[in-house]
């Protein structure tokens, strides 16, 4: 029988994580516009939670599948019940925090105004804008016997009105808020602004012809977006996988509605007519008086004057070039001398891009192989790969088309890679490829040499500047050989390959972690485990960590998001401490540390301790042997464990308590890493080169 004494439901744990995101907007030390961003991020997170997690639970509950959560013992329906009980409190909290942030912005004369708050000149400006820019593309619709129900697009805003005709019969009318229009209209003083839905809400009464408006509000629906890949449906030999993915993505627009948001309370008559059109339960309806599309925040910030942004946003941070790398010396030769580590976003991603470009141009490079999960919309990494292919290198990209919400972007990039001459493969039917590995193979004097890069985050320059991640670059022959075997296995759909150094899921990471934890359990109170991940949900891993705690092992966990293990339960998890950091940057690196001092075993990985990562994805964990890099990673862990500014501690009941205490000096780990580089200043002696090598580099430099 499953023991739920020291575990908690993953959905409620996630909601508590998102609450911590929202609470960053309460921190008055955070600039006001950045606080507004945290509210927007909270809202976007909640949208995705409904689209994916709630959508999936609805499917399970509707199918009446006997699927019990192994951390709480709840059925899908019971989980939905607890979720719907929790959400209203979060919305109320968001409303209060939003009002507080708006007050802070008002001190700098920035105001989100309603139509009735416009002064005479502003009202004239807005009316002209409406007539010239908005009215020509509006499509109001009355729903009656002659007009069918509209299709409500996921997360699009609508003005919804209860109207009556000349016969006094009541109907509903809807005006979609055009997505191609700006969300924010700046008023002439460039500080006050009005959102486009507020204009439409005011002008709606003029758009219904013979129908008279009785009552109006803004609404938004959230649809289930959990489009699952069903391999049994992919049987047409004449249809390639990319084409198939395009087809199933179209399903998202028509999946069931799992949430209905209204901008204000409405009358019973309004509600009665609306529910004839939108089929939802009462528990799925939420009144939220804050803007229903909080993404407007990012458009607003772009439109505000620079002097305002300088005052109310974080001081821009420019990632640095690491001290232990020389821009003027070959990246490949420097990595051959010793392993190198990039720590994003504090270090620039440019050294890795330099490495790819160098590999694209070097005559002795024969191939570049890489796994791709998410990419920037404008990717220097893809351009480097295309350049390599055009230069005659073999370029193989294992592209994951099922990266949620990035599917269309990846489909487009895969086509571009193929056009440039790269070989693109799409992985396995039932296993997403989430690993982050790049292998550069060189042929010198008849022998093959390797440069292997393994990371914790995506090959995405945009998120490299926003997420904390690690990127290890090594010339290790053993790791390179394993990487070569890995790509060969991926191309032959072999998940059962054997590796000497790398740990590879779905078969290799979980078993290795259990073995490593067992080694620490054998040490008893001398044992030590420190794991930094985004989430912990995998039941076997939770039980093994609980076993380690019972043996007296010191277990330090740094878990940004979901954590289904509850620490501090006497006799079970009282030797486990769980830290969570939510700050300016998104904590994303995965680090596994077992033991202390010289006998410590240290890995970086793409895998969280989640069932999906350890059982249903292709993931990689790489050992770290270089002493300087081990020291750097340990400093990362120690600094984050000491964080008192942005860290919270998970309590036995599943709640979180901030570590900061009045009167104590605060340690902000992310600020520490911005202020101080982990890299030691190294004087790098140029590698001796023969004349031919020198002339080739000179030619390439001039070509650039």
What topology does this entry show?
Elements: H1 10-23, H2 32-62, H3 76-106, E1 111-112, H4 120-134, E2 141-143, E3 157-164, E4 170-176, E5 184-186, E6 192-195, H5 196-203, E7 212-223, H6 241-249, E8 257-262, H7 268-277, E9 285-287, H8 296-303, H9 306-312, H10 331-337, E10 340-344, H11 350-361, E11 365-372, H12 380-390, E12 394-399, H13 407-419, E13 423-425, E14 432-433, E15 437-444, E16 447-455, H14 461-464, E17 467-474, H15 477-491, E18 503-505, H16 509-523, E19 528-533, H17 539-550, E20 554-559, E21 576-581, E22 586-587, E23 590-594, E24 601-605, H18 611-615, E25 617-623, H19 627-641, E26 647-650, E27 656-658, H20 669-675, H21 691-703
Parallel strand pairs: 1-6, 8-9, 11-12, 12-13, 14-25, 17-22, 19-20, 20-21
Antiparallel strand pairs: 2-4, 3-4, 3-7, 5-6, 7-8, 10-17, 11-15, 15-16, 16-17, 18-25, 19-23, 21-26, 23-24, 24-25, 26-27
Helix pairs in contact: 1-2, 1-3, 2-3, 2-8, 11-12, 16-17
């Amino acid at each position: 029988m499953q023991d739920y004494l020291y575990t908690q439901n993953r959905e409620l744990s996630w909601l508590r994580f998102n609450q911590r995101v929202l609470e960053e907007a309460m921190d008055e030390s955070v600039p006001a516009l950045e606080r507004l961003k945290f509210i927007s991020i909270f809202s976007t997170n909640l949208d995705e939670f409904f689209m994916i997690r709630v959508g999936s639970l609805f499917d399970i509950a509707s199918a009446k599948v006997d699927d019990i959560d192994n951390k709480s013992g709840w059925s899908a329906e019971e989980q939905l019940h607890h979720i719907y009980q929790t959400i209203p409190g979060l919305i109320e909290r968001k409303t209060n925090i939003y009002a507080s942030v708006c007050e802070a912005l008002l001190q700098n004369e920035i105001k989100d105004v309603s139509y009735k708050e416009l002064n005479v000149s502003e009202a004239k400006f807005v009316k002209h804008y409406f007539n010239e820019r908005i009215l020509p593309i509006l499509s109001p619709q009355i729903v009656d016997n002659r007009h069918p129900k509209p299709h409500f697009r996921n997360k699009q805003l609508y003005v919804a009105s209860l109207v009556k005709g000349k016969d006094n019969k009541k109907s509903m009318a809807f005006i979609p808020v055009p997505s191609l229009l700006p969300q924010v209209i700046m008023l002439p003083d460039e500080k006050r602004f009005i959102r486009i839905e507020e204009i439409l809400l005011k002008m709606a009464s003029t758009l219904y012809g013979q129908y008279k408006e009785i009552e109006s509000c803004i609404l938004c629906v959230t649809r289930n977006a959990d489009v699952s890949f069903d391999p049994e449906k992919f049987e047409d030999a004449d249809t390639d996988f990319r084409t198939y993915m395009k087809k199933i993505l179209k399903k998202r627009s028509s999946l069931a509605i799992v949430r209905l948001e209204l901008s204000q309370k409405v009358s019973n008559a309004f509600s009665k007519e609306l529910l004839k059109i939108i089929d939802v339960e009462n528990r799925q309806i939420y009144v939220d008086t804050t803007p229903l599309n909080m993404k407007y925040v990012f458009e607003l910030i772009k439109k505000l004057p620079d002097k305002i942004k300088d005052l109310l946003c974080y001081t821009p941070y420019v990632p640095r070039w690491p001290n232990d790398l020389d821009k003027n010396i070959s990246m490949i030769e420097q990595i051959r001398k010793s392993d190198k580590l990039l720590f994003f976003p504090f270090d620039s991603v440019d050294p890795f891009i330099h490495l790819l470009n160098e590999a694209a141009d070097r005559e002795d490079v024969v191939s570049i192989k890489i796994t791709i999960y998410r990419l920037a919309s404008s990717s220097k990494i893809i351009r480097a790969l295309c350049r390599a292919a055009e230069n005659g290198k073999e370029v193989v990209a294992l592209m994951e088309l099922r990266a949620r919400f990035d599917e269309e972007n990846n489909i487009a990039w895969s086509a571009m890679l193929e056009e440039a001459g790269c070989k693109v493969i799409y992985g396995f039917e039932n296993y997403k490829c989430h690993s982050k590995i790049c292998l550069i193979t060189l042929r010198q004097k008849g022998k093959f040499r390797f440069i292997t890069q393994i990371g914790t985050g995506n090959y995405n320059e945009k998120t490299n500047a926003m997420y904390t991640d690690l990127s290890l670059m090594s010339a290790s022959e053993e790791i390179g050989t394993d990487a070569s075997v890995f790509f060969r296995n991926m191309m032959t759909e072999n998940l059962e390959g054997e590796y000497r150094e790398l740990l590879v899921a779905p078969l290799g990471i979980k078993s290795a972690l259990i073995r490593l934890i067992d080694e620490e359990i054998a040490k008893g109170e001398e044992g030590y485990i420190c794991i930094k991940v985004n989430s912990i949900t995998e039941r076997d891993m939770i039980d093994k960590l609980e076993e380690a705690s019972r043996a007296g092992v010191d277990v330090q966990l740094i878990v940004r998001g979901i954590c289904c293990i509850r620490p501090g339960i006497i006799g079970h998890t009282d030797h486990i401490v769980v830290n969570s950091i939510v700050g300016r940057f998104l904590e994303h690196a995965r680090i596994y540390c077992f033991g202390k001092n010289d006998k410590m075993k240290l890995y970086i990985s793409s895998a969280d301790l989640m069932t999906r990562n350890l059982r249903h994805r292709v993931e990689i964990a790489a050992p770290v042997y270089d002493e300087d890099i081990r020291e750097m990673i340990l400093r990362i862990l120690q600094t984050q464990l000491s964080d008192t500014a942005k860290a919270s501690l998970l309590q036995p009941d599943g709640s979180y308590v901030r570590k900061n205490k009045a009167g104590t000096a605060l340690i902000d780990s992310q600020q520490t890493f911005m202020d101080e580089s982990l890299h030691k200043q190294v004087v790098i002696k140029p590698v001796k080169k023969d004349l031919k090598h020198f002339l080739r580099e000179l030619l390439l430099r001039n070509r650039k």
